[in-house]
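PROTOCOL LOG
Step 1. Enter all chains and additional molecules of the complex.
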Amino acid sequence: MKKNKSLLLSGPYIAWMVIFTLIPLCVVLFYALTDVDTGAFSFGNIENLVLYLPAFWRSILYSVVSALICLVIGYPVAYYMAHCRPTAQRFLYMLVMLPMCMSFLLRTLAWVGLLQDTGIINNFLEMLGLPRLSLIRTPGAVILGMVYNYLPYMILPLYAIIVKIDNRLIEAAEDLGCNSIQVFARVVLPLSMPGILSGVTMVFVPAVSTFYISNKLGSTDIVLIGDIIERQFKQGDNANMGAALSLLLMVLVFVCTGIMNRFGSDEEGGVLV
Amino acid sequence: MSKELIRLQDLVMEFNGERILDGINLYFNDHEFLTLLGPSGCGKTTTLRIIGGFLTPTSGRVLFDGKCINDVPPYERQINTVFQRYALFPHLDVYDNIAFGLKVAKLPKAEVHERVHQILEVVGLQGFEHRKIDSLSGGQQQRVAIARALVNRPKVLLLDEPLAALDLRLRKDMQNELKRIQQAMGITFIYVTHDQEEALSMSDTVVVMDKGRIQQIGKPEDIYNEPKNAFVADFIGESNILDGVMLADYKVKFFGRTFKCLDAGFEPNEPVDVVIRPEDIDFVAPEEGHLVGTVTAVTFKGLNYDIIVDFKGFKWLIQTTDFQPVGASVGIRLNPEDIHIMHKSEYSGMFGDYSSYSAEYDELTEDAGDEEE
Ligand SMILES: Nc1ncnc2c1ncn2[C@@H]1O[C@H](COP(=O)(O)OP(=O)(O)O)[C@@H](O)[C@H]1O
Ligand SMILES: [Mg+2]
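Step 2. Run joint prediction.
Step 3. Record the structure below.
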C-alpha cells in the first residue's frame, strides 16, 4: 500500500528520467559504439578519442584554473555577505544572482564587445594615448569569460555554508587562544569545506564542457572539448565521434564529482550540488 | 586569606540604549567557586561575556590581577569558557577538540598527548578520543566541553549554565564532579546558573542578580538565612514575607502582635519586611499558638507536606512532616531565630504571599518541568 503510493508519487519523475535521461544516454552510447559510415558496431570512435586528448587536457586545465580563481575571488565575497546584516545579505544575494538572470550568450558577447581589438577597452586606451592591447583570443580572455559566467555558482554555495557557521564556535576558538587568523585557519576554513567543494564542483562541471566562451573569446588554437563536440555534431557530420567525446566528458565529470564527494564525506556533510 | 584575582568596577552594559548591566561591582578571589545566580535575562551571560572578553562594557573596568584588561582580546586572557550550549567543534573528534587550545599554544606533541589523556581521565572519558562529537550524549559533550577548557590550565574557568541541558540525575552527578574538579585543580570557577539549589550546593560565594544589578553577595548559608530583600528571600527557596514594623532593636510587630527577633540596627518604628521560612514553622495546639489559622490546602511532596494556612486572610506556606487535614484549626509558635527582618525595597509586596497558592503551585511544577528538559 505504502509502496504503491510512493511509486505513484515518484512515477512522473521516473518517467521523465527514463524519457529524457536514460534513453538519450543509451542513444549516445549507441552512436558512440557504431561506425559513422557503415553504422556497424565498432570501437573506432573510442580508439580515436586519443586524438582529442590535448583538447581534453586543455579543458580540464582551463576549468580547474577558473574554479580556483572563482574560489579566490568568491570566498571573501561569500564571507563578507555572510557577515552583513540580514537586509544587506538579501540585497547582496540578489546582486550575485542578477547576472544569472541574463542570457549566457549575451553575457559572453558583451565581453567580446569589451575586449575585442576595436572594443571599448581598447578604444578607451587609445583615447588616453596608450597603445592598444590584444585582449581577445588569449587564454586569459577565455578564463575571464569562465570566471565571469560561473562565479555566482561559487559564491552562492559558499555563502550558504558560511552563513550557517555558529558564531559561538568562533568565540570558542578565540577563547582557546586563537587570534583572528588562527580562528580562520582552524575553524572557519575547515567548516567551509563543504561549500568550497560544492562551489568548485559547480564551477568546474559547466566550465569543462563549455564551448561558447572559448569559441567567442579564445583564439582558434584554444580549442576546448566542448567546441569539438559541437563541431562534430554541427559541422563535421560525425555525430558518432561527438557521442564518444560526450561519453568521455561525462565519465570525467562523474569521476570528478565522485572525488569531491569522497573528500566531502571525510569532512562534514558532503558536497551540496 | 586567598587573594583577589578579578575585579569588576562599575560595569555598565547597554544594548541599543537599554541598560542590561547597571553598575556591577564585584571581586573574585583566587581558587574561589563563585556563582552568579538570577532569573533568566538578568544579565548573567552578559557579565560572563565581559569577563571572557567577548563584549566590551559600555563603561566600567575589568581588572585581572590588578591590571585593567578591558582592551585585552579573549585569546590573550588566562581565562577559558565552558559555553552555554558547549560549542564543540563539529569537524574535530574528541581528542582534537580537547587538544585545540594546546595545539594553538604550540605545545610539544608528547605533552599535548599526555595532558589530553590526563584530562580525559579527570572527566571520565577514557577511550572516547576518536569519537565524533555528534555521536556523544549530552552529558558526554558536556564533559568534553569542560575538558577542552580545563586542559589549558586556565587561572579562571567561566561556566555558563553548563548543566542546564542535562536531566536531573546527571545534573546532580555533574555538580559533584565539577566541585571535585574545581577543588582538585585549584582553579577559580565563575559559574552561572538560574537554579538556586545548584548555586547553594556548589558555591563558596553566591552573587544574586536581578535586572542587571547585584542584589546580594554572600556565602550560601548567609544568602539563605539572611536575605537582604524580598527578591532574594523569594528567589532563594520559599518564603512567607509579611509587612511589619520594627518597634526597637530585637522587637518586631506584625499581625498585631509583638515578637522577639535577632535583628537590630533599624530606625525606631521603621516599616520592614518580615521573612519566615516555611520549614521553620512548627504546629502546636491552637490554644498554645502565637497565631491561630485554618488549613486551606495540603500537598504531599515526598519529604514533607506543603500546607497552606490562612491567618486572618493572609495565607502562609508551611512545610512540615506533621500532617493536618484541610479545615483543621492549627496554632503556630515563632521563635526569635525563625524571624528574619529586611529593609523595605523596590521588591516589597511583590513576593512571599501564598494567597494565590494554586497559581503559585502551577508555577512550581512548571519550573520542575523545565528542569527535566
Ligand atoms: N547582543 C545583544 N543585543 C541586544 N540585547 C542583548 C544582547 N545580549 C543580551 N541582550 C539582552 O540582555 C539581557 C540579559 O541577557 P543575558 O545576559 O543573556 O541574561 P541571562 O544570561 O542572565 O539569562 C536580555 O534581556 C537580552 O535580551
Ligand atoms: Mg544566559
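Step 4. Note key features.
The CA atoms of residues 40 and 96 of chain A lie 50 Å apart.
Residues B 44-45, 84, 160-161 surround magnesium ion (ligand 2) (CB under 6 Å).
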